[in-house]
Amino acid sequence: MLRERLRALLVGVVAAGSLATVGLLPTPAAAAHPRADECAPAPNWTSGSSYRAGDVVRYTDGSFHLAKRDNPGYNPVVSTRHWSTLSCDDTAAPAHDDFVVSEAQFDEMFPKRNPFYTYEGLTDAMKAFPKFARTGNDTMRKQEAAAFLANISHETAGLYYIKEVNEDNYPHYCDRERPYGCPAGQDAYYGRGPIQLSWNFNYKTAGDWLGIDLLNDPWKVERDPAVAMMTALWYWNTQNGPGPLTGHDAMVSGAGFGQTIRSINGLLECDGGNPHQVENRVRLYKEYTEILGVPTGPNLSC
Hints:
The protein has 302 residues and is mainly α.
C-alpha cells in the first residue's frame, strides 16, 4: 500500500532529528516516485484536518504531497518542514510562471520599492494560492492582479515600508481576551508585510493556515520576504474582514474594486470614513490596470 511504502522511507528522516532541519537529508520525494495510479486515490488536502506521517494528499493545484510529520492540516505547499512534494509518473502540476504581470510591469508599478519585496518572492508565494490571478478570462485575471497590487501599494507606500511606521500604535494590537493571548508580547503584533498584517488573532489564523508559528514569532513577517508576501495573499484570498467578500471573490464575482477596499479597511475608509484613502487606492488601481492594458470594471469605490 502506498501509505505504508512511503511511511517506511520516513523512518530515517525522523530518526535523524536535527539534521532534517538544516536540509542535510534527502526528502522522501527524492527516493520515491509512486505510479500515477497510486497517487490518484489520494484525498484532497483540507486545511485544519489532521494528517499523519505517510499520508498522501492532492493539493488544490493538482500536485501530490507526502506528510513527513504528523501535523494539524498545515498547507503542504508552504510548510515544507511537514510536507514534501511527490513526483508521480504521468502527473504534473501546472506551471507557476504564468503570472499575468511581467517582471518589467512589476518594476514599473513599484519603481522605489524596498529590496525586501521582489517579483520572485511574489510569484513563489503565489504557489500556495493557485486561484489567485488565474481565475476567469485574461481581463479578469489582470484586474485581480491589479487590485491586489494596488491595495498593497497603498498599504506600504509603493512596497517601501515593511512594518508599521507609527510605533505608538504597537501596543494596541493585542487582544488579551483571546484564549492564546499574546505570547510574543503586548506590542508584538503591529502591522507588517505588504498588507500590514496586524493583531494577534490575525497572526494566529494566518500562521495556522500557512503552517508557520506567527503567534509566537510575528517578526518572521518582517524578516522573511516569502512569509511576508504569503500573509498578504492569505488575507486577500481567505479573509473578508469587515466586508461580505474576500478580495479575490470581489474581483472574480464582478462586485468590483470597491469591495476589496471594504474587505481590507472598510471600517475606517468606506461609507465616507476616509475618502482620501479610498481615492488613493482607486488611483493606484487605475494606474495598474492601464499598465496591464485592461479596463477597471465597475464599482471602484466603497
